[in-house]
Design goal:
alpha+beta, PH-domain like, five-stranded antiparallel sheet, 3 helices, 10 strands
């Protein structure tokens, strides 16, 4: 029997409630894990693979202010973000997309009422950094090309929509250095 390889980057919503984040949105740490840095106002965008014309979206970042918390720990990097129904539905608000938007809105309202949030969890020790680009101004921004132990390629962009945050960016960047 083969053992399933846990993906180095996971994203979801309700499935993380009680395992990745608590009911109030805080991080649930593992017994051997310590929180190194907590920051507000960050977002993540993850695609896989990075080399295709139309890559699949693992976790979609949102432009602008959305209540979110980024946790840099000794074992992982986790973003927990409130569900913003309008931003997630507005792309589908076309004449042909209205039925899809209505279904998506109802699902998101149900998730939000149950206390769910969006989360993205990255295990830096499970990936190899192929390429990293950093921008420090006008806002902190890090773009990574990662190769996971599951042989998948991941394009990860982590940014602060509040402006430069050099200290947090350095903590994140250090987790991907080898």
């Amino acid at each position: 029997m083969t053992q399933a390889i846990r993906p180095p980057i996971r994203a979801g919503d309700r499935d993380g409630l009680g395992t990745v984040y608590s009911e109030w949105g805080g991080l649930i740490t593992r017994p051997s894990e310590t929180v190194i840095r907590t920051a507000r106002g960050w977002d993540i965008d993850v695609i896989s693979p990075w080399r295709r014309i139309l890559p699949g979206t693992v976790f979609s970042g949102l432009d602008g202010e959305v209540p979110s918390s980024l946790y840099v720990t000794s074992e992982r990097i986790v973003l927990v973000r409130e569900i913003d129904i309008w931003r997630e539905v507005k792309g589908d608000l076309t004449p042909l997309g209205l039925p899809t938007a209505a279904i998506k809105e109802a699902k998101l309202k149900k998730l939000k009422s149950a206390g769910a949030r969006r989360y993205c969890e990255i295990l830096p020790q499970e990936v190899r950094t192929v390429r990293a680009r950093v921008k420090r101004r006008p806002r902190s921004w890090l773009h990574l090309r990662l190769l996971g132990r599951d042989d998948r390629q991941y394009g990860v962009t982590i940014w602060s929509w509040r402006g430069p945050d050099e200290e947090t960016l350095s903590f994140i960047e250090s987790r991907f250095r080898r």
